């Protein structure tokens, strides 16, 4: 089982829209709007790297999203 944190930058003012779109996605365990360099932090869980890749690809397709950074948990 893989666990990853996905840091997201959104377009200005689109944080809530992206947050709402991510809340019910398969593989997404938690979604948080944060202050700082990134706008949203997502906690995702997947069976393997291919499934994680698909989750990240689906997240990156959301309207209002500017960029992502994926951190895969190792320990």
What is the gist of this entry?
The protein has 2 helices and 4 strands, in the order E-H-E-E-H-E.
Fold and architecture overview:
It contains 2 helices and 4 strands. It has one domain (about 1-70): 2-Layer Sandwich (Alpha-Beta Plaits), CATH 3.30.70.920. It has helices at about 15-20, 50-60, and strands at about 1-10, 30-35, 40-45, 65-70. This is Transcriptional regulator, AsnC family. It holds the Pfam family AsnC_trans_reg. InterPro entries: Dimeric_a/b-barrel, Tscrpt_reg_AsnC/Lrp_C.
Please render the helix and strand layout as text:
Blueprint: E1 2-10, H1 15-22, E2 28-33, E3 40-46, H2 49-60, E4 65-72
Antiparallel strand pairs: 1-3, 1-4, 2-3
Domain Transcription regulator AsnC/Lrp ligand binding: 6-75
Organism: Archaeoglobus sulfaticallidus PM70-1
Protein name: Transcriptional regulator, AsnC family
- Determine the mean pLDDT: 96
Give the SSE string.
EHEEHE
How many helices? The count is 2
Radius of gyration: 11 Å
InterPro entries: Dimeric_a/b-barrel (IPR011008), Tscrpt_reg_AsnC/Lrp_C (IPR019887)
Protein name: Transcriptional regulator, AsnC family
Organism: Archaeoglobus sulfaticallidus PM70-1
Domain Transcription regulator AsnC/Lrp ligand binding: 6-75
């Amino acid at each position: 089982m893989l666990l990853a944190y996905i840091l997201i930058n959104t377009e200005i003012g689109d944080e809530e829209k992206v947050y709402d779109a991510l809340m019910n996605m398969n593989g997404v365990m938690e979604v948080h709007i944060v202050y700082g360099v990134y706008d949203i932090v997502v906690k995702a869980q997947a069976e393997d790297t291919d499934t994680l890749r698909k989750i990240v690809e689906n997240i990156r397709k959301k309207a209002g999203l500017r960029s992502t950074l994926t951190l895969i948990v190792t320990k």
